[in-house]
Amino acid sequence: MGVKSVLLNLLPFAAMVMVECLDVGLTTLSKAAMSKGMSQFVFVVYSNALATLILLPSLIFYRTKRPPVTFSLLCKFFLLSLVGITLMQNCVFTGVSYSSPTLASAMGQLIPAFTFLLAVIFRMEKLDWRSSRSRIKIMGTLVSVSGALTITLYKGPAIGAITTQSNPEPIPSIMSTTNSWIIGGLFLVTADLCVSIFTTLQAAILKEYPSEMAMVSFLCLFGTIQSSIVSLIAERNPNAWKLRPDIELISIIYSVSTSENI
To answer: Going by C-beta distance under 8 Å and a sequence separation of 6 or more, which residues neighbour residue 242?
Structure first.
């Protein structure tokens, strides 16, 4: 009985580790797809469209078993989708296209820090300087922010790279790579902030509408519509909408199984 209790307590941690592994796999696959020419904006549209098609039966066949959806709730779902899907996902994959999956994984450590700050601002978390628990949270926030700034502003040389005197790397190329790395980091910071805002608002909305599956279905639907508008504005090349049955299709199917569409 004791072993069973320990295993049950470890399940949430195992689930979080699995989610992190899935997210790392998604950023890696999406980077490979974008390196082959796939637009990050089109990727977001197809990913959410596929998730909407999968979740659509839950909206149709279980509409009598879920709480009624009011116009006010639809507006909240729309805003939540704008922050947690459209802005967040486009910033994530744009940041990955400018930098690398490694930076995306490292910058994810900012999410707890942003969430803690938002919780303090909205009085969801009490900040007591005399409490050791509050001081530890503040220290963790400072460490997360400083670490993210360090990895964004200092890319460093590639591991195993050898530069010879006869064929040095051109300085403009180095500057261009560094600038892209910083731009990618800024997009990823924005995405982490969106995740924190999304998590905070989602918790409040779920208290009003405790039907997770229906809410996720509406979020994916609104996310598909919103990201389609963004893609039509940002991506002017009609060939970008052509989906090849290779790493592009694999990455889109894989994305539905990760937390990016949840």
So the answer is: none
Distance, C-alpha 7 to centroid of its chain: 29
For the record, the structure tokens of 55 come out as 């979740």
| Amino acid identity at 152 | T
**What is the C-alpha to C-alpha distance for residues 176 and 157, in angstroms, rounded to an integer?**
14
Q: Look at the block and give the residue holding tokens 């296209």.
A: 97
- 180 burial (CB, 10 Å; 0-12 / 13-18 / 19+) is middle
d(Cα 231, Cα 42) in Å, to the nearest integer? 6
Q: Is 193 in contact with 14 (CB distance < 8 Å)?
A: no
Angle formed by the axes of helices 212-234 and 171-208, to 10°? 150
For 174-216, write each residue's pLDDT tens digit.
Answer: 445 567 777 888 888 888 888 888 888 888 888 888 888 888 8
In 3D space, the residue among 21, 14, 40, 29 whose CA is nearest the CA of residue 98 turns out to be 40
Domain boundaries, the chain: 15-157+169-261
Q: How many residues does the chain have?
A: 262
pLDDT per residue over 7-54, tens digit each? 667 776 676 677 777 777 788 888 888 888 889 999 999 999 999 999
Residue 212, amino acid:
E
0.90 surpassed by pTM: no
Tens digits of residue pLDDT in 49-91: 999 999 888 777 776 777 888 899 999 999 999 998 999 999 9
Using an 8 Å Cβ cutoff, are 89 and 227 in contact?
A: yes
CA distance 101 to 33: 12
